[in-house]
Amino acid sequence: MSIIIMHLYPVSFYLFSLMSFIVYIIHSVKLDKFYIGTTDDFNKRLEEHNHLKYPNSFTAKGIPWSLYLTILCKTSGQAYKLEKYIKSRKSSVFIRKLKSDERLLSNLISRLT
User: Can you list the alpha helix ranges (DSSP code H) found in 6-90?
Assistant: First the structure.
């Protein structure tokens, strides 16, 4: 099972890939909180978070949101399992460790698939 962890470039740089499901983690400086989601169009989804498409949502309170980490997955099932697991940890420390330790994320993916 392979995944791609992206830290340095915008998602559009990687869209040549056949993978099309993205687990994304965005951060709000205003709230100092993370939000984890899954999408097949990250740029559109980030725009929705930052432009009050859902005015009563959690993310409406934290605008502006910025990209923290994206993980490309091969299937929607893989992406949803990963999203659910990261959310279940309820830990910004864990999220920061995912970004700094690529082996942790690789092992996590292996366990979830």
Answer: 42-50, 76-89
